[in-house]
Amino acid sequence: MKYLSIASILLFTAYAQAKSLTVYTSRKEHLVKDIFKTYEKETGVKINYKTGKAGALIQNIKAELKDPKVDIFMTVDAGNLWYASSEGLLESTKSDVLTSHVPAHLRDRDNRWFGLSVRARTTVVNTNLVKKGTNISYEELAKPEWKGKLCLRTSKKVYNQSLVAMLIGTHGYDKAKSIVKGWVANKVDIFSNDTNVLKAVAAGQCAVGIVNTYYFGRLIKKQPKLPLAIMWPNQKSYGVHINVSGAGIVKNSKHQEDARKFLEWLASDEAQKQFAQVNMEYPILKTAPQTDIVKSWGEFKPNTAFNLTDAGKLQKKAIKLMHEVGYK
Question: Mean pLDDT, the chain, as a whole number?
Fold first, then answer.
């Protein structure tokens, strides 16, 4: 009988481990499973994944950090990514592929996380109530002429917290507070999600709402005759606020090199095409195709001056500000 040496056993174990990666993701399973399967087919590397709420997954990673069971954390919104990195849970990753494919304002300044798909937090109007060509901006929506015309999603959602963080980063705390206070004064109602905001706008309950683009895409795909249209805000100033879904390598991951290769693949043309198609988001790569629905919205000026790392850094101030003005 032949016996394997300890060195051979360790080498075999390391090789076996490299044949799989584990991802914790707050993205819905139907949005990522086919992307993971494509990678498995192309590389032979099995992608195991666990889904859940971003906060709960971050706590799981924190609890396991000395002996992590996960290699990659994937979630929505730079605020969640920043929180994970600020807790020391993500590794700084050196990769020419990632830094060349992911624009600087859509990744962590220390390369601990990278945006993988883009969504804009835009204004959507009822076309029967708002004239085409109306100048809309986040700041304009705080003015008296929009009183009783604005629908908002709850301030408890990270998407709005990051939007307000952007306003703080752009204008300073006091001016941002004045803007959000104006929103609250002008609001018709506060809704639990973006879809309900859109339905209220379509019904004429309000003239305008602030939502993520893919929610609009999903609804208009099902009901194309709704009197709704995207009206890109801030096109005469700094541009519409954009955010990301993204990912980073977990600190102490046992498969750092393989995890980096997977992240690089997620920023490739093939994966970017799938990201764009599955949820009507904008690909990070300009060479990756958009869906026909997304193309139909036309070009817009995005806010590229605001680094999304600051959306996380300013999140606590944003939450405090919204509480102070009564934005629930």
Answer: 94
